[in-house]
């Protein structure tokens, strides 16, 4: 209980405090401290939840189970490493005049508020509050994306704001529709939006309404996940914002949206007793994978390219959750973990690379290994990991995903494989010339902190070589939780 | 037999009262503008004067030009006799419905436009083309607005619609309000009243109706003018019938008829007064804004239709 | 009797909501857009008040007052102030093609009526009919966001979408739980403040509030 409150309070307190702190170096340290505190609290909390199976806090307003607690730890962890990475990175930006002291304050404060929104979203048991916290996290990142105040960054933030605003409005409408049918079952109060109660009474909810509701939720939260064809905001927001923001957008915010979608899918499955929701998710996932794989090839900006890779992987996860079997959900959860780790690691590396070369244009980034071996090798390893090369966790999860797909929908494997191959080709075609070759003249030495990157990649490697037993059982439990409703459906 | 008599009386009433109604509007407008006005009977005096004058025909006028006034007048009188003013069910109104009414008015309009073009002057052709453009927008809007009402009554027959409105208890029906606003806008446009056309202007560039009858004189002109006045009264009566039918006589008793006459005159006075106020306070729209005005009417009527289905079907 | 009277009033307000949505879509002048937007907020508050009275739900009175203050007064005022400070209150925004827009709007309304039909058949709530209207208003708000070229009118479209969601919550479900409603209202307020901030940044950066200029800069940045 105390731990739970501490987990939520530490980013809140940190965010408020950082909003007043003018000394940027001190602020960066406090930022790291907040990140570490949040992570430690969340880790202890997770252990406690695992021991008790599940955990309800503050009169049922918050609900922790195997599914979300692992995401909380992941969020807190990536948040922590991002704070570590951002300290030297933002210092460099400050020294080069891309931000001033006031903006630094805004950055730190908004970063922690974003963390708060994320954690609140993952822990809450009320799908209305889930929406509110996702919106909170979005608003915080809008300010972060426009941090540099360049024309392009303002335009990107505006696009992000408008498109996601539209998407998230649709999701709210879906939530209203759920409330519309559940209020006749669960009464006219908070109970009718409480997720655990909704799940218990899912079969009593009206199937027609839930189907319409899921269409809105799918498009709404799908916009936030970055699924094609609603993905237009994502590359711009990733490309124009500061790199730590790109890292958490890709690594965390997309996860929260997908998490919300999956939670809603569980309800819809229970109500409709059909696979409609799953099929919709599979369709959107597959389209996103293909669109992203082809778009990868046309990118000139390194951050934009990797953001398309994020769309590709979010598509894969959506597809896996759509299949809905135990194995597929296991694969999706594992993929979520390794993707968050590897992708944020890549963005850290890319951020340093862009600082070293003074540009984000891939055509002008050359000879990274010669210029700074840490960055060059980091980028190469990260790309290998995200493209799904064997020793890394991405390979494992993709392999599991293919196995699951072969069981239920064999023909989809051809499409998936094609998409993955095209994406891999695109990534390597772009990364190869950047890491090898001669160092261009404009390159400058930078102070880098590769520690978070190495930790991320090492963890991804570990997950690829052998998943620790406690983690595997954890995933198993979470996967069982996600599919429990669908299993009932097949039995019925 | 009695019914036929009432039918004739009612039609006659509309035809005879029409100039008076036009005079009433003109007088109200004059008073609102702090003028004394020419008096209620002025339109009658004008008509009498015109009937006494000689007809001057243009050299190129064909038979269409000569026939048109009679066709226009007859079609309008026919239309007027279809609309029940006092009695809900009359022999003619049982057979003809709103679509026939619109068709009769369209016939009149068709000949009016033909006559406008017949002489070959620039103004006639211009007026005719404008009239047709506007009517192409106004007619669907008018039908749409009538359909909103007929959905409730399941008929486009005026008598059925009126009795339906009289029979149902008074509830708040937003769709009807939308249809009413649309209908009022269309009535303004169809009768060439101020936001769309100015009946008293002879300023070349803005005329619509006046441009078409510019070449007419004598009894031809009198018939054309009279037909326009009847049309105004017809529209007013139609609006009263469809939206405010309370007070109409359902049987042909003398008392009921007198009461209906009183009610009708009262409602008519209010409506025409509103028209006068509206004409005094609004400025004329520029010509290219008229289609927008009419499409607004259409959208309103269509919204009424949708709202009827969305909100009121299950009532 | 009260029930059916409330229903009639709510239906009337629903019709007016739809009318306002159409009017918003058809306005050329920024100031008249704001006037209609404020009217929409007031209508919302009235709906909440009437539903509260009809269902005897005291929480809804709170949200009615909240709506009146936030959506009927504060947000329009904030936008109005931004418009005045940016000196764009006289600007006329050319609509793409008002006839096509109107036809699209009618089609959208029909479409929303169609998708909501299965929902309306099952509900026993007195206000279920408003769901179709709310859906239509939401889609019309989105249409406004798509067809408008200026940042401010896009924002009004966004807020109109938010308004119609609130209308769905009030009119169709007799109001969401208060916590959620306060949360949503808070988010909208923050969003509006951020929007306000953005107007000035966009204006200083691009010298206009045209969205096309922004798109152009993104493209240039990608190609540079």
Structure commentary:
- The complex is a heterotrimer of chains A (492), B (315) and C (224).
- Chain A has 492 residues and is mainly alpha-helical.
- Chain A has a domain at 275-492.
- Chain A has helices spanning 2-18, 24-52, 66-95, 101-123, 127-145, 151-186, 195-200, 207-225, 233-240, 243-272, 276-296, 302-323, 326-357, 368-371, 373-387, 393-408, 412-435, 451-465, 469-491; strands spanning 55-57, 62-64.
- Chain A has a two-stranded antiparallel ribbon with strand order 1-2.
- In chain A, helix 16 (393-408) crosses helix 18 (451-465).
- The longest helix of chain A has 36 residues, at 151-186.
- Chain A is globular.
- Chain B has one domain (2-312).
- Chain B is 72% helix and 0% strand.
- Chain B is globular.
- Chain B starts with a helix and ends with a helix.
- The mean pLDDT of chain B is 88.
- Chain C has one domain.
- Helices cover 84% and strands 0% of the residues of chain C.
- In chain C, helix 1 packs parallel to helix 5.
- The longest helix of chain C has 29 residues, at 58-86.
- The radius of gyration of chain C is 18 Å and the shape is globular.
- Chains A and C meet through helix 5, helix 6, helix 8 and helix 9 of A and helix 4, helix 5, helix 6, helix 7 and helix 8 of C.
Overall average residue pLDDT of chain C: 82
Shape of chain A: globular
Q: Count of helical segments of chain A? A: 19
Number of helices of chain C: 8
Low-confidence stretches of chain A: 486-492
Structural class of chain A: mainly alpha
Largest interface, Cβ cutoff 8 Å: A-C, 51 and 54 residues
Mean pLDDT of chain A: 87
Please tell me the total number of domains of chain C. Answer: 1
Q: Please tally the β strands of chain C and state the result.
A: 0
Query: What is the terminal separation of chain C in angstroms?
Result: 69 Å
Assembly state of the chains shown: heterotrimer
Q: Strand share of the residues of chain A?
A: under 5%
Q: N-to-C SSE series of chain A?
A: HHEEHHHHHHHHHHHHHHHHH
User: Taking Cα atoms only, what radius of gyration of chain A do you get, to the nearest Å?
Assistant: 21 Å
Could you estimate the helical fraction of the residues of chain A in percent?
over 70%
Rg measurement of chain C, Å: 18 Å
The largest sheet of chain A has its strands arranged as 1-2
Helix content of chain C: over 70%
Per DSSP, what share of the residues of chain C sits in E-state strands of 2 or more residues? under 5%
């Amino acid at each position: 209980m105390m731990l739970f409150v501490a987990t939520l309070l530490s980013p809140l307190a940190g965010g408020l405090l950082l909003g007043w702190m003018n000394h940027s170096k001190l602020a960066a340290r406090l930022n790291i401290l907040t990140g570490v505190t949040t992570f430690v609290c969340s880790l202890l909390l997770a252990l406690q939840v695992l021991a008790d199976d599940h955990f309800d806090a503050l009169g049922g307003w918050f609900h922790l189970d195997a599914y979300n607690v692992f995401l909380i730890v992941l969020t807190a962890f990536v948040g922590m490493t991002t704070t570590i990475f951002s300290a030297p990175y933002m210092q460099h930006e400050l020294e080069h005049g891309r931000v001033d002291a006031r903006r630094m304050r805004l950055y730190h404060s908004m970063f922690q508020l974003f963390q708060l929104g994320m954690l609140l979203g993952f822990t809450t048991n009320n799908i209305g509050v889930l929406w509110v916290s996702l919106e909170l996290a979005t608003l915080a990142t809008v300010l972060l994306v426009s941090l540099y105040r360049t024309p392009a960054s303002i335009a990107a933030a505006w696009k992000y704001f408008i498109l996601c605003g539209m998407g998230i409005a649709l999701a709210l409408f879906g939530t209203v529709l759920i409330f519309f049918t559940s209020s006749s079952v669960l009464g006219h109060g908070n109970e009718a939006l409480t997720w655990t109660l909704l799940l218990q009474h899912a079969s009593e909810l009206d199937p027609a309404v839930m189907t319409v509701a899921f269409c809105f939720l799918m498009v709404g939260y799908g916009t936030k996940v970055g699924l094609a064809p609603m993905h237009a905001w994502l590359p711009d927001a990733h490309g124009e914002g500061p790199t730590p923001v790109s890292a958490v957008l890709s690594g965390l915010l997309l996860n929260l949206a997908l998490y919300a979608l999956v939670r809603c899918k569980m309800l819809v499955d229970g109500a409709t007793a059909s696979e409609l929701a799953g099929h919709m998710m599979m369709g959107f996932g597959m389209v996103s994978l293909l669109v992203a794989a082809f778009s990868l090839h046309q990118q000139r900006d390194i951050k934009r390219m990797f953001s398309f890779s994020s769309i590709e992987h979010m598509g894969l996860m959506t597809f896996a959750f759509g299949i809905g079997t135990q194995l597929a959900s296991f694969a999706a959860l594992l993929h979520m973990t390794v993707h968050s780790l590897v992708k944020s690691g890549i963005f850290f590396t890319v951020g340093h690379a862009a600082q070293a070369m003074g540009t984000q244009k891939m055509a002008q980034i050359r000879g990274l290994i010669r210029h700074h071996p840490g960055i060059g090798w980091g980028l190469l390893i990260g790309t290998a990991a995200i493209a799904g090369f064997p020793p890394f966790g991405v390979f494992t999860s993709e392999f599991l995903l293919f196995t699951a797909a072969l069981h239920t929908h064999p023909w989809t494997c051809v499409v998936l494989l094609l998409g993955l191959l095209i994406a891999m080709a695109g990534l390597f075609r772009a990364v190869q010339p950047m890491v090898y070759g001669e160092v261009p003249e404009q390159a400058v030495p930078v102070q880098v902190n590769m520690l978070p990157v190495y930790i991320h990649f090492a963890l991804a490697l570990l997950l690829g070589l052998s998943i620790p037993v406690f983690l595997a059982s954890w995933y198993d439990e979470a996967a069982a939780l996600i599919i429990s409703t669908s299993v009932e459906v097949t039995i019925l | 037999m009695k019914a036929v008599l009432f039918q004739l009386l009612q039609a006659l009433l509309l035809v005879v009262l029409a100039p008076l109604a036009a005079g009433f509007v003109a007088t109200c407008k004059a008073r609102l503008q702090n003028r004394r006005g020419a008096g209620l009977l002025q339109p009658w005096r004008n008509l009498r004067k015109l009937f006494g004058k000689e007809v001057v025909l243009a050299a190129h006028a064909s038979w269409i030009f000569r026939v048109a006034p009679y066709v226009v007048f007859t079609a309008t009188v026919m239309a007027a006799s279809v609309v029940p003013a006092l009695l809900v069910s009359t022999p003619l109104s049982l057979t003809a419905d709103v679509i026939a009414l619109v068709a009769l008015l369209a016939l009149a309009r068709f000949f009016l436009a033909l006559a406008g073009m017949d002489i070959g002057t620039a103004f006639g052709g211009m007026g005719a083309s404008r009239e047709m453009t506007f009517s192409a927008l106004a007619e669907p809007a008018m039908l749409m607005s009538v359909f909103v009402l007929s959905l409730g009554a399941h008929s486009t027959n005026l008598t059925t619609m009126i009795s339906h409105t009289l029979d149902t208890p008074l509830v708040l029906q937003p769709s009807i309000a939308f249809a009413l606003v649309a209908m009022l806008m269309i009535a303004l446009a169809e009768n060439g009243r101020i936001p769309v056309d100015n009946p008293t202007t002879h300023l070349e560039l803005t005329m619509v109706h006046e441009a078409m009858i510019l070449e007419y004189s004598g009894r031809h002109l009198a018939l054309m003018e009279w037909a326009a006045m009847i049309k105004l009264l017809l529209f007013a009566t139609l609006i009263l019938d469809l939206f405010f039918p309370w007070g109409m006589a359902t049987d042909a008793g003398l008392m009921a008829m007198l009461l209906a006459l009183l009610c009708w005159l009262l409602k008519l006075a209010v409506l025409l007064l509103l028209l006068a106020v509206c004409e005094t306070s609004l400025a004329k729209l520029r010509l290219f804004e008229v289609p927008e005005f009419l499409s607004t009417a259409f959208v309103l009527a269509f919204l009424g239709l949708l709202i009827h289905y969305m909100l009121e079907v299950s009532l | 009797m009260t029930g059916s009277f409330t229903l009639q009033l709510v239906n009337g307000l629903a019709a007016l909501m739809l009318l306002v949505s159409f009017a918003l879509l058809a306005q050329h002048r920024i100031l008249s857009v704001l006037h209609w937007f404020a009217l929409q907020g007031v209508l919302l508050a009235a709906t909440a008040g009437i539903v509260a009275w009809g269902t005897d739900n005291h929480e809804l009175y709170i949200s009615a007052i909240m709506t009146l203050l936030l959506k009927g007064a504060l947000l329009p005022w904030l936008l109005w102030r931004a418009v005045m400070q940016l000196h764009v209150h006289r600007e006329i925004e050319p609509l793409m093609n008002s006839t096509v827009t109107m036809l699209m709007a009618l089609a959208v309304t029909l479409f929303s009526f169609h998708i909501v039909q299965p929902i309306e058949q099952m509900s026993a709530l007195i206000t279920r009919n408003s769901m179709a209207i709310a859906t239509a208003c939401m889609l019309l708000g989105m249409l406004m966001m798509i067809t408008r070229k200026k940042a401010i009118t896009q924002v009004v479209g966004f807020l109109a979408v938010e308004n119609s969601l609130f209308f769905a919550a009030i009119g169709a479900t007799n109001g969401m739980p208060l916590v959620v409603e306060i949360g949503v209202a808070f988010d909208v307020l923050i969003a509006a403040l951020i929007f306000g901030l953005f107007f000035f940044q966009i204006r200083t950066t691009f010298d206009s509030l045209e969205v096309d200029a922004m798109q152009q800069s993104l493209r240039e940045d990608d190609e540079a």
